[in-house]
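> agent: user asked for a holo structure of the chain below bound to magnesium ion. Plan: (1) validate sequence alphabet, (2) canonicalize SMILES, (3) run complex prediction with ligand conditioning, (4) return tokens. Step 1... ok. Step 2... ok. Step 3 dispatched.
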Amino acid sequence: MLSIRHLNKAYRGPGSRLMLRDIGFEVAAGEYVAIMGESGVGKSTLLNLVAGLDLPDSGSIAFEGSELTALDDNARTLLRRDRMGFVFQAFHLLPHLTVAQNVMLPLRLGGAAADHSARLTGDMLEAVGIGALAAAYPRELSGGEMQRVAIARALVHRPRLVLADEPTGNLDAESAGQVLAVLREAVKRNAGAGILVTHSAAAAATTDRIYRLTAEGLQRSGEQ
Ligand SMILES: Nc1ncnc2c1ncn2[C@@H]1O[C@H](COP(=O)(O)OP(=O)(O)O)[C@@H](O)[C@H]1O
Ligand SMILES: [Mg+2]
């Protein structure tokens, strides 16, 4: 479903350095993988490239037969909207929309009917344990609650590919366990695929395979 080949990305300017070095990996339909690594090593950068939010300096990102680096901005945006769900590390909730409106947005943008969207949104909020917060605004929420809204929004349109950037960083162990189960189920349903970026060994253990990202590249955890 997802095939990454010889990906390189450098940030230029003062103190410029190669961020991602010859990254390659595959995620088949039905597979859920974790990427671990120290802060600043480029995990969020890699996830942004996979989502087509940023472009590599070289290399290939093929997703369900589309080469992302060959698409224009608009095509990448549509593909992401329809087939990917991204849980941003910094949530990126819209402050003037309620919790339910934030979560519903991907469905409405994709053209789903209002009543259908409302039903899926309600189910999704229940699944991540914040059904009672549907009418609240982001400013009224704790960090952990905002994180769960971000997860609900990423999953509500049943994306083929789930990309989650440290989705349990603000959660207590119980809430983390709950959303990790929801994420795994979302990936496994319809044989989708998922990438979980995390610092937590317990979170990584909910996936099928663990990679470690270092300055030298990406390696299967346990391999040298
Ligand atoms: N747009 C950018 N321009 C310049 N440097 C960036 C940019 N985005 C990220 N970086 C740098 O790249 C490094 C890796 O960032 P990031 O991918 O967020 O790492 P991680 O998610 O593993 O903590 C950081 O040192 C960060 O400062
Ligand atoms: Mg990061």
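> agent: step 4 complete. Summary for user: Strands lie at 2-11, 17-27, 32-36, 58-63, 66-67, 84-87, 161-165, 193-197, 209-214, 217-220. The pocket of adenosine-5'-diphosphate (ligand 1) is lined by residues 11, 19, 37, 39-45 (CB under 6 Å).
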